[in-house]
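Hey all, sorry for the wall of text incoming. These are the four entities for the joint prediction.
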Amino acid sequence: MQIELNTVYNEDCVDGMKRIEDKSVDLLLTDVPYGMEFQSNYRNVKHIKIQNDNNLDWLPRWMKEIDRVVKEDAHLYIFCSHHNIEIFKSEIQKYRKVKNILIWEKNNTGMGDLYGDYAPKYEFVLFCSNGKKKLNGGRDSNIIKANRTQNDLHATEKPVDLMEYFIEKSSVEDDIILDPFAGSGATPIGAKNKRRNYIAFEIEETHCNTINKRLKHIQASLF
Amino acid sequence: MQIELNTVYNEDCVDGMKRIEDKSVDLLLTDVPYGMEFQSNYRNVKHIKIQNDNNLDWLPRWMKEIDRVVKEDAHLYIFCSHHNIEIFKSEIQKYRKVKNILIWEKNNTGMGDLYGDYAPKYEFVLFCSNGKKKLNGGRDSNIIKANRTQNDLHATEKPVDLMEYFIEKSSVEDDIILDPFAGSGATPIGAKNKRRNYIAFEIEETHCNTINKRLKHIQASLF
DNA sequence: ACTACGGTTGAATCCTGAA
DNA sequence: GTTCAGGATTCAACCGTAG
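and here's what came out:
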């Protein structure tokens, strides 16, 4: 392994992943940029625009690298939206089997067209598995409720709860979890809480600093 | 109009729809064959295998015809599953805007891989709109809960409640509603209950007879 | 335990005005 | 004409607190 475990790398993930050994990752859990040029206009808080979110050109190279580093029977969880789910699913299916599409049901609905559309209340999570690896715990449904957390840190912050849930369903202690788009850091933080190893990339320096602060805070409180 | 309203035609819908006038349909509400060769093993009831369900060759011709007969600003609701949502969405998008993907959340979970997968609890409904037509009533979320109904009529029976909900959101009295894959008849029955007109096709004679019986029953009870 | 009520919030979309 | 950036806007769901 030419890469350090339990580190958040401030670099482009497609480059950085090249230093990860073949078939060494036990779980992929990530929230990719949706390719929507999203910038939150939420009230007074102005978040940094998501980098490289104006197109999905990175997707084929990214997926190829993911397939190289993630174990054959590992589970993959990839967040995406209804706007371009067909693009993500089609690309991922070139390498891995999309076994299910999970629904993260949020506690509240979003903005958008007020009169001509239904209010958005969920995010998709593409769940990939070749079928050999079992899920830990009982048989849960493919609709998962989890409350949104504060979005002071990141425009599209994911709840640590939800990440920990997926981590426990699909990995054991000391496994290696990869998140190429760490964002607010929910995956590395969840991994640390649950005593798994993580490899994380985040291209935005500000977010990297936030993640490292949050991780340090856990260290102080856990031990 | 060369076609009779409020009739269930026992024929292939791609042929039958040719008799519908251009841009004459106010709402499309249908549960297409998912292309999975589905045959329910539910309890003792053996359902008829869904015809033409082993492939999706019909889809391009079907969608072209749908686009011809449905009004430009009309809403389209097309049920589909996660297995091939990308195929349906991509094909539909050649003609219409998929504005949202609705989740029909069922009261119970389905079968499937008991150990290596999450239990299926929903169906997708592709919601298409060019954005000009408003939805009736309040602003509802894109997750819609509706109980499954008895499964003795049809393998993939949809609740009449749910169809009536969509009918009321997206049409007014005397509108024309099209269902090219009528199945158990939830759409024509919902349409009749809500005093809309329907055009329905169902290739399987047994199902046609069932639908007509159910429709007759409404006539008796409504008037 | 239950209801009532106030406070808070949203991976968006539309519209307007400037370039 | 066209594109683009930024500002205003919804109401249903949920939570916490109080009665």
